[in-house]
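INFO batch 0412 | record 1 of 1 | parsing
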Amino acid sequence: MHKLRNILCIIPPHMLREIGEKGTANQRTLALATLSHSNEIRSLRFQKEMVERAAMMRAPTKQRNVYDAKNGSQLPGTLVRTEGDPISTDTAVNEAFDGAGATYDMFFEVYGRNSIDNNGMRLDSTVHYQKGFDNAFWDGKQMVYGDGDEDLPPAEQLFRRFTASLDVIGHELTHGVTQFEANLNYFSQPGALNESMSDVFGSLVKQRLRGDTAGQADWIIGEGLFTSNVNGVGIRSMKAPGTAYNDPVLGKDPQPAHMSNYVNTIEDNGGVHINSGIPNHAFYVASIEIGGNAWEKAGQIWYKTLADKLNSTSNFQDAANLTFEAAGELFGANSLEQNAVKKGWEEVGIAVGAPPQGEGCLTAVLRAVGLAK
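INFO prediction complete | emitting tokens
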């Protein structure tokens, strides 16, 4: 058993609050319980405790373990599948196992990365976490998945099991990659970049497994997560931020797609799940401009930026400047790829090459308490 740390959840608190206000009695109970638990474990995020690396580099080997929490909270739980084991009779176990494998394969085969920490880290996942837990999260060491609303009456179910969405799995595991690379602070614009990087590579894992080009991809995060009771296609849309859902219980997708609509808030760690729509859309536009498979070129640019250029306090302007720089290094100055990156950021209201912009009073407050530089 290990203690929770660096908790990064897929379902944003604003969505759970909407359910807590507008849902049925059963829906409200599950949503508020999930929100309370997510807030409790999220408060440990700033401890910055990292998983220790091995003294020597390990050879690239895919190592996956899936555990069953049996609706409890102890992690990791009971080991139920590991490498070489036959397919389980538990669908969630197989989805967690296969999703971790697809994520490992993309980072290794496309970007040359040796697992999450680039040092052969074993990919541990726990399924059936708690009862009625409407979320999934990376805790700094492993993946954890709830079963959604499966115990509610069918007419009240909003969320399916969280292993059902491959881009959710890729999203959460990418939080681990960010943890070991730029380690973007989880507040305001650095936090929104943290979320956006997870959306980028979570989407690319799904696109690569399906063989979708940028033009064919759905660019939805959380595809397959909602039940038919929800008016929505997923929790976020990279193609059209703000349009993923519009539901009487969940509310309306609040993501902006342009800096003119940037949301200044102290909730959700300064809007990390909301304002991530801006860099998400920049990546989408760049990918469409480049064409072909997004993981091959646009993904290479974003990966190089995450691994080699961003730091813990980088903001949107930094990301624009550094992805433009990375595109030039990879594909040449004034190349199609570099111009595509420039257009992507221009489409969301950020001019490449401009000096970093201030983030207003929120950053000033965080700086005052020692959480920003």
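INFO post-check: The two ends are 35 Å apart (CA to CA).
INFO record closed
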